[in-house]
Amino acid sequence: MTETGFLGAALRSRSLVLGAVLTAVFVLAAVVSFAWVPHDITSMNVPDRMKGPGGAHLLGTDHFGRDILSMIMVGARTSIAVAVVAVGIGMGFGVPLGLAAAARKGSLLDEVIMRGNDLVFAFPSLLIAIMITAVFGASALNAIIAIGIFNIPVFARLTRGAALSLWTRDYVMAARVAGKGATRISFEHILPNVTNLLIVQGTIQFSLGILAEAALSYVGLGAQPPLPSWGRMLADSQTMISIAPHMAIFPGLAILLTVLGLNLMGDGLRDLFDPKIRRVGR
Length: 282
Hints:
By secondary structure, the chain is an all-alpha fold. It has helices spanning 3-12, 14-33, 68-103, 108-121, 125-136, 140-166, 170-177, 182-218, 230-237, 246-273, 275-281. Helix 3 (68-103) packs antiparallel against helix 4. The longest helix is centred in the last third of the chain and has 37 residues, at 182-218.
């Protein structure tokens, strides 16, 4: 597919376009928050506490009188940063492990890698975070490590499964006959052909990373005050939801729309990269 044809197909994908727009809104909010927010998130204004949406506070204020819109904008930085780094950790370790396991299918190395993946899968990211927190304390960094560790086997399994089907292709056989080693073939011939799958999975894991960060912050294991977090905003609002429901509604909507946008974008990319799905859709 040519570059023009690819762009045209992308623009015709409603899920991809809608997902990209929703994701871009929150990314833009996070970027803008570095330079400007409507109100200082560190200043408390007791007379304006739990004020409803409208006026000087578009989305209202929390129990300390802080502007919720400003908190959501700065919280977007935390959620996006945690998810991006955690997915980067998962890809950085998982992809090479998956390539190595596929290149040596049936060997001791393959067994060690895959059984290690099974072991990590036995511990959800929340449980991993609890164990890390018990040793090092609660922080955004430890949340990143916990989510990143959980992402490693996801990418390792995906890469191995996709790579195994490619090792029987003619161009790989030709590369082996030419004297190329398994490592060189993995990175020169296998990796470029699984990149599309990795991009789609990375988008999905990015959305799951945002959910995981919110869950960890909700139980106090993620970003710590004064750093805003969507999950902790929900935790702070739970005892006041009957008198100030906006404190829970708007952070919840931020999580919902961001995850929805990323999932729609992942579905759109999957359809775009899969020629069989594109032909069926015509």
